[in-house]
């Protein structure tokens, strides 16, 4: 299966501008970079959680939460030149129509291309960062997006629907705990339904009896993320469960259970 980014509609996001306009996002150094001399095979941009509204700088805690995941993913992809960065947002909040976190994610994708050249980018977001990953997936360098327990707005007939056309041509995976009390898993299911109609390369896994942080099945979620991100970036086969989820029609491929022990038999 090919995993190259298509020419889907790009979500128009107001990207951060030059100095003098306020704080700027940062990419920083890569996490556990590959050995010297290994050519870059792809870039994973990890997008931490955020608030609905906040004009303050993000809390270091949000980055600390995703640090173990980022290190694990970086080590898994190091031999094949996959670089992992944790994006540092300008602000701690989405901030309504500004969609600040999504704009920062799009900026980070452009920055990755500027640093490493024409390489594929995978966006991996948690909570509000998951929403940012889905919004910014239309960037021309992005070939895949993974949203873990994404925060999504409640359905409101007076408000525009979350966009999905920017996902066309991308590989998309959503992971959500069925007992999440912070971000409604049914909202991510309904988004996945609409996304699947626009983009066949969409699937969704449910982590049964787990909450927002997915603490009880963190190893399985990390293994699933590695399988998806490295498969998408390096154009190598996914594991059988991911292949089945992508191929299955709704709702089966959008309510795929994440089996306990997933990843133990993967190479």
How would you explain this protein's 3D organization?
This protein is of the alpha/beta class and 267 residues long. 31% of the residues lie in helices and 15% in strands. It contains 6 helices and 7 strands. It has helices at 60-77, 100-116, 128-136, 185-198, 218-234, 240-247; strands spanning 42-47, 82-86, 121-126, 142-148, 171-177, 202-207, 256-257. The chain has a 7-stranded parallel beta sheet, sandwiched between helices. α1 links the parallel β1 (42-47) and β2. The longest helix has 18 residues, at 60-77.
Task: Quickly describe the structure.
This protein has 267 residues and is an alpha/beta fold. It has helices at 60-77, 100-116, 128-136, 185-198, 218-234, 240-247, and strands spanning 42-47, 82-86, 121-126, 142-148, 171-177, 202-207, 256-257.
């Amino acid at each position: 299966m090919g995993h190259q980014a298509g020419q889907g509609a790009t979500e128009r996001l107001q990207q951060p501008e030059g100095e003098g306009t306020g704080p700027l996002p940062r990419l920083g150094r890569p996490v556990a970079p590959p050995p010297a001399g290994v050519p870059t095979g792809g870039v994973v941009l990890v997008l931490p959680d955020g608030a609905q509204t906040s004009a303050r700088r993000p809390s270091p805690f949000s980055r600390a939460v995703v640090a173990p995941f980022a290190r694990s993913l970086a080590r898994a992809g190091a031999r094949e030149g996959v670089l992992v960065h944790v994006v540092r947002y300008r602000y701690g909040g989405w901030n309504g129509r500004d969609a600040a976190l999504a704009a920062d994610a799009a900026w980070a994708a452009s920055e990755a291309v500027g640093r490493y050249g024409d390489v594929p980018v995978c966006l991996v977001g948690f909570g509000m960062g998951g929403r940012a990953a889905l919004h910014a997936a239309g960037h021309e360098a992005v070939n895949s997006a993974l949203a873990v327990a994404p925060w999504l707005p409640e359905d409101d007939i007076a408000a525009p629907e979350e966009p999905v056309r920017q996902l066309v041509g991308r590989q998309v995976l959503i992971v959500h705990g069925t007992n999440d009390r912070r971000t409604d898993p049914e909202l991510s299911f309904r988004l996945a339904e609409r996304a699947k109609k626009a983009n066949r390369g969409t699937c969704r896994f449910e982590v049964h009896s787990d909450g927002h942080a997915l603490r009880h099945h963190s190893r399985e979620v990390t293994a699933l993320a590695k399988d998806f991100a490295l498969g998408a970036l390096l154009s190598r086969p996914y594991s059988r469960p991911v292949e089945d989820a992508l191929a299955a029609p709704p709702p089966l491929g959008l309510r795929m259970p994440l089996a306990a022990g997933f990843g133990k038999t993967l190479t």
